[in-house]
Amino acid sequence: MPLRINMVVLLVASHSDEASMTLCHAMLRLGGWSEEHFSAVGMYRVHDSGLANLLLIDQIHIMADGLDTDYETSTGIEISGILILSRHVSSSQTPAMTLHAIGIPGALPYGELGVSGGKNGILVPPNPLFAPLFRTMCELAIERGLDKEFDLTMETTHHGPVLSKPTLYIEIGSTDLEWGREDVADCWASSISHVLGISNDGSTYIDENADVMIGFGGGHYAPRHKDIIRNSNLNLGHLIANYSLTFDHPDSKEPWSSSVVAAVKSTQISFPNSNIFAHLDRKSFKGWQRNAIIQKLEELGIPVRRGKEILQRE
Q1: Each residue of 35-47: pLDDT tens digit?
Q2: What is the pLDDT at residue 246?
Q3: Contact, 240 vs 156, CB < 8 A?
Q4: How far, CA to CA in Å, does 81 sit from each of 137, 156, 224?
Q5: CATH for 212-313, among 3.40.50.10700, 3.90.170.10, 3.30.1440.10, 3.40.50.10860?
Q6: pLDDT at position 107
Q7: Topology of domain 2-207, per CATH?
Q8: CA–CA separation, 188 vs 13, rounded Å?
Q9: What residues does CATH 3.40.630.50 cover in the chain?
Q10: pLDDT above 50 for 184
């Protein structure tokens, strides 16, 4: 049975990001928001459902370390998680609707500031709404014909800020031609509203019995992991790309191991009572690399499942 969860999710938009503002306006068009209130980090609105707050900040969000703590301290409102509304940029400039968890796995030296915010080696807990939002977005985008123009995808964990609450980035990409698209923003707003429970019965539903997958390996858009999540009822933790699982860095014997441990520990924070397993994009690793990751996961008590096994269970 689904788990009924009443929660306050903080939606964050930034004046410094065109797509972020387009998404912000789409959320406001859904209605039900209060007048603006002041907080130490920006102006915010409260939704009538009690399930969401919408915060508007001036600085670019990837640099907003500690935003969650500052917001709670300033307003006295406890939040359960964060959805950051953002633009997406890619070298291919492919139009995309995408989402991802955040942090900088595998980057060295550990603890130093990342190029795009965050700190090297630090992962933020992934928002438990990751998989439900992805599946809902795909369904609504296809209904509205957006799949004919946009890649409906997810990304591996990357960039800042450093936060303590479970966080997810919601993005429109990949150029200014797409960042202002109201139809795309409205699709995302409807997806968020549905999954949070704003547009239906007033409660967020998460399947408490669904196992949680962490994905390791593959490229930035994690196609093998994405296919499993799209065709299952699983929940999702971090997705860690090959480029974050370095096996031959001169400054560390096992930077890949730190990425594996960080992904597991961070996902366990978001899903403390769930069965967590790992899925490997096996073809993206050499045999000895794959065996090393599996051994490390066994040490952490995380079983590894193959794709066919996962979907058969579903």
Answers
A1: 999 999 999 999 9
A2: 87
A3: yes
A4: 19, 19, 27
A5: 3.40.50.10700
A6: 87
A7: Aminopeptidase (3.40.630)
A8: 14
A9: 2-207
A10: yes
